[in-house]
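Recall that a protein's primary structure is simply its ordered list of amino acids. Everything else, from secondary elements to tertiary packing, is in principle encoded there. The following example makes that idea concrete.
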Amino acid sequence: METIDIGRLLRNKNPRLARWVPRFVVRWIERLVRLEKINHVLSTYGAQPPMDFIRSTLEYIGVTYTVHGAERIPQGSRVIFASNHPLGGLDGLMLAEAVAPYVPEVKVIVNDLLMNLEPLAPIFVPVNKYGAQSTDYARRLVEMYESDAAVITFPAGLCSRLIRGEITDPPWRRNFAQKAWESGRLVVPVYIEGRNSMFFYRFERLRKALGIKLNLGTVLLPKEMFDQKGKHLDIYIGEPVELTTEHTVKEWGGIIRERAYGLRPIP
């Protein structure tokens, strides 16, 4: 199984920028993203099928979870699972494994950088977060929505932030509701309980205060993932929603978000 090389990844993603990035910066990024641990997981478990790979990865990290409301997942219907995004990566792995026994196939919409995780490429469908979509990416999205596969999406597009003292998603994009409408899919709201470190939230607050538009916090997410060691998380599945003409697509987007956050247990 091919491991990840940060230098090569930079060259493939942005060759012009890669020429100007010094080697010591690349080494610093490698340490920051816990590349040694990531490559250990890829080397050790990379030959496994996607769901087995996810299971092995979660065991290696040392994180467990409980699913609440799995009986609400509709049988025989095409669905989109629309979830909050508290962790920025680990939550997607858990949700994919959690719903897999109840659906014919699972597809997860991800940042195209994650396609470098080859064992998960069969269940990942890439989108370019920082540029125009390629013809290939657009084709894959169309094929996904036309298939019977269950789709997992995180409509915020970013992981949760500390906003006015509460850890919550940035505004959800309505694209998921539009796609559900166009493809005739039910939408299943999901709430995942979890949080990253205060360092991550402070870093993001500082980035925003400095006016830095590039989502630098993404670089911290692998560290945050491995730092979940020993945690037990909860996934709450809501009732499926059929999008009707009663509301506009934009309104449905807001309604689904409200229903997802409404699944939070009362303290």
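Strands lie at 64-68, 79-83, 106-111, 124-127, 150-153, 161-163, 166-168, 186-192, 232-237. The radius of gyration is 18 Å.
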